[in-house]
Amino acid sequence: xxxxxxxxxxxxxxxxxxxxxxxxxxxxxxxxxxxxxxxxxxxxxxxxxxxxxxxxxxxxxxxx
Length: 64
What we know:
41% helix, flat, Translation machinery-associated protein 7 homolog
């Protein structure tokens, strides 16, 4: 047995994809996604500043 026969075979390389031309609709969609991502990040920052939304869960009355 030679060293090249055993083990996992390397997969063939896939051909590179051609970069497709982006039209105005694609550009607008990507811009909209970027803006939504920025808004989401801003909302995460604001949420991190505040405390938890729920207070204490189940409250006990103190009676036995």
